[in-house]
Amino acid sequence: MRQPLRVRIRERLLRLGEDFAYDLVGLPTAVAYLVKRRQPSAEGAPTAYLRSVYSRNYWRRTGGPLRGLLAISIWPFACAICAAQFTARNGTYVRAQASKDITRQLGEEVMLAVRSSMAPYWYYMFEIYNDHRRAVVHLYLQRYETKGHIYGLLQPRQNDGMQDKVVFARRCREAGVKAVPVLLELTDGKVIDPQGGPVALPREDLFVKPRIGRGGRNAERWDYVGNGTWQNRAGRPLDEAELLRQLASISAERDYIVQPRVVNHPELNDINNGALATVRFVTCRNEVGGFEATDAAFRMAIGKNNTVDNFHAGGIAANVDMQTGRLGPASNMGLTPGVGWCTVHPSTGAAIEGRVLPLWPQVIDLACRAHAAFPDRVVVGWDIGILPDGPALVEGNIKPDLDIHQRVTRAPMGDGRLARLLAFNVERLRKAG
Question: pTM higher than 0.85, yes or no?
């Protein structure tokens, strides 16, 4: 898992920037805790409990008071800039949809940021400009408290290799859990067969992505066009020797892997836009030590993108009914007008809402068995492709994004099963010392 120093420094700076953004957004909640000193029980409202845990630790972490003072000095300016930015993008659209003028939107954004630590980003994503959603704003699980703290408390002490896609594929294979295999490792300018065999490219479409990464960034398709040649989106065909040299060269920057480009079940061909459409599935350890599936969303690529389906890469997603596998309407992140809510796929016109995903019971079973293969994990977000021969794991995410689920259900998760399980596991950890 070698990475050049400049790559490590860049990624470290990005993490620090993300952490400080969470400091800024969560500041009003942490300040309110100092004033009120409320300590809800884990048996009560899960959002209140999780928020109290977050707030207590906000000031106790390394450099907490200094980080808090820095956040206090910057917060007013950051809030004003963020509100202006997102209102400029969405204000006219919301004024037409919700009959709410720009001044009122700005006022609501600022008040929500002060009272509920909900930044303008989420005001538009979760459509809080609708009054009935603003009434339950306290029930939204927000990134600053989940990704910014709660998930960190629940991480296993030992590295189980989930973030390393080579180790992940190997552990799944050993556990008998179906996952997309790793054909080749790309490291230090070399191409390596992970099984120790000779290096060769199978005559099929290939998918190349970072060995450690998220969000579909730096992923690339190489389609097999026959006669021992492959072609990417740039359009220049390469033979096997040329492509192997190309693959070796990109590993001078960071480690990559090569996988077969898997495709969806035929019943999903009309809504995947040429990219693998996947189910984002959340599982969590429950009160009896088992692993429970709580939430699911189906992600699809749209427009010119036929490489990845990621929500943060411009894709759309639809809620999946956990009992039936039936899809609701789909949308993008909702941070710019244009896509809105789709009952049919924007690029193909095929129906989304009301469609039932094939092999749904097998998808749920795979997610739960996958979690059992990584038993030290409390919560995991799985990316699962439904393939012609059954569902297969693409990867596991150790800090699953809940924005996608709260966006596509158009409802908060703070009074749902996942929130209660998170609260239970945090309290269990606290009692264990």
Answer: yes
